[in-house]
Amino acid sequence: MQKRISEKDARTLLKEMDLLQLGMLADNIKKKLHPENIITYVVDRNVNYTNICVSKCLFCAFHKDLGASGAYVISKKDIFEKIKETIELGGTQILLQGGMHPELTIDFYTDILKYIKNNFSIHIHGFSPPEISYIAKKSSLTIKDALIKLIDAGLNSIPGGGAEILSDTIRNRISPNKCGKEEWLNVMRRAHKLGLKSSATMMFGHIEKTKHIIEHLKAIRDLQDETGGFTAFIPWTFQPDNTKIKVTKATAAEYLKILSLSRIFLDNINNIQASWVTQGDKIAQTALFFGANDFGSTMIEENVVAAAGVKFRLPKEEIIRLIKEAGFKPAQRDCFYNIIA
User: Fold this and answer.
1) CATH number at residue 176
2) Is pTM beyond 0.90 here?
3) What are 166-181's pLDDT values in tens digits?
């Protein structure tokens, strides 16, 4: 069994090991976990139910104020058309996320979930921890009670969004109106104990330091030891265009190094996802040799990262081609990493 690395070991790896060495180590671990040479992907769509948000995170180019030009709350007609098209394109799930709307209570969210389930047979991967925390507070509910209501209405799993960097030193500066580190972890803990699986993410390449990245990875690993509820980890780089954080965009080499470290450090999470949405097709393809075993979603629709000026698009056929070209076997999966095609 591989010896678990410490936070000190992680710092040493990032500081002293070059990219190719780190990538080789991560790739060897991936091969042991996934010897079948398969790279998975999922066909789904992001459905953003509103862009109205009180959080006003400095890194977000998507949010609008209530009443502002371009602000919206999705209609049921639009939901119907988006999901109908998703299923016609072979989609098996939707990612349902949106802003922290100041006037919506839990009834709005449960109504959407019930409407979708009454009209479609599709997996709903919805509501990140900051959304759930905010919905609970707006509705005077505990996190557990809010989750139970959402599950009863049709919620199937939770995306790992809103994590950014799980260090309050950083969160207090870039997203002071959003839930803190412990609240994010607590939502996930409660969800996992209620039987909901989730992914976990990390957005890096803004104002964080190495120690904050490692703090984030340690928090995810510790919670996974406790609950076993994370299905996958998805690190991705901050996209600074159209945001209030002015930094130089992280390089592909920096991305691949953190991706590799994630595979090495998170020894209790089987799946590491490449981020073609922020990196483009070639770097995402390269990530398959640096620890990633999943190519992520076809993302029939994506609005949040696109608002920061990133417009990469990859249809299912292109993802399959890229996986094959890299020497792997492509396989379509569901949200729980069961192969379905």
Assistant:
1) 3.20.20.70
2) yes
3) 999 999 988 888 999 9
